[in-house]
Amino acid sequence: MMAKEVSMQAITIPTDLERRKEDYPLITGQAHFVDDVRLPARWPAVLHMAVVRSPYAHAAITHVSLDQAMSLPGVAAAFSGADLVNDLRLLANAVPVPGLKQPVRRPLAVSKVHYVGDAVAVVLAESPVVAEDALDLVEVDYVPLPAVVDPEAALAQDAPLLYEDFGSNVAFESHSGGGDIAAVFAQADYTLKLRLVNQRLAPSSLEPRACLFDLDPHTGQLIRKEAN
């Protein structure tokens, strides 16, 4: 099977407006989004996928029932993590960090969720509305497990572990420095010690991310269209 990635159409920005790289396509109606893609009429209708996500930060999954979701008119298929991901490639870290521990992560959770919003199951339906309605019909039985949200509390000896195999909640350690630091401090007229607490940071797009996959049964070519 061949895979082809299709990027959105490039837009020419008039001279002297280059600094408004994002605004110009939007205010002139030339922006292209995944939802604008129209496949040839002879092709099957597009199915929309919605994701069932965990309400718990840490919990065991004991059972996933898809029967009611499958019975909803307009639903084409529904899958739990156990149905899909055991044979899929593991998810890799987007940015390699030296010494970073790599847990076993797949696109869907199978037996345990590790954060609020962890994907548990997916539903494919004829419209986004039906797919969203079907999410409420997927029954997932969870056994909540102890969770810790404070990073310093997570370092305690008796803190609940998110990944037991590592024996610690420490993801990685990074050390930096140079020169004779001890001598510099010893010769300083004044030294200052302070504790800094930074806010949580979670960069997220204002618009939802979307992608469209299409398999041409005649050529075996898989086409992917996605926002960039």
Describe this structure in words.
With 228 residues, the chain is α+β, with helices and mostly antiparallel strands. The chain has a domain at 44-144: Aldehyde Oxidoreductase, domain 3 (Alpha-Beta Complex), CATH 3.90.1170. Helices cover 12% and strands 22% of the residues. It is built from five helices and nine strands, in the order βαββαβαββαβαββ. The protein has helices at residues 23-27, 67-70, 81-84, 128-135, 181-187, and strands at 2-6, 48-53, 59-65, 75-80, 112-113, 119-125, 139-144, 211-216, 221-226. Strands 1-9-8 form a three-stranded mixed β-sheet, with no helix packed on it. Strands 2-6-4 form a three-stranded antiparallel β-sheet. A hairpin with a 4-residue loop joins β8 and β9 (221-226). The model is unreliable at 1-8 (pLDDT under 50).
Observed structural traits:
12% helix; alpha+beta; three-stranded antiparallel sheet; 228 residues; 5 helices; single chain; Aldehyde Oxidoreductase, domain 3; three-stranded mixed sheet
